[in-house]
Amino acid sequence: MAMLVHEKALSIIEALAPIMPLIQRQDRALALQLRTAANSMVLNVAESQYSDPGNRRARLFTAAGSTNESRSAVRVAIAWATFGGSARPKFSVVSTKWLPSSGS
Question: Does this model's pTM top 0.90?
């Protein structure tokens, strides 16, 4: 299960990679916070794989917090109209999940 979560977390970073330069041009601080949170998400999931049960749970809660922070950073970028029409992210940020968009 942890390996699936790790792969999903990495796929989120892959989805963020193309939009990071756009965010950085508009809001350097937000881009740095998003990059840090996304990295933390993946690295905490990886660390949890080799932790004892108590620490594993703590690392996964930290990863969940970083996931929420990443999602919120993308929503903030969208709210600030960082993306022009076709440059919008190729995923939807809703509820507690990152969902691929139905568009291309």
Answer: no
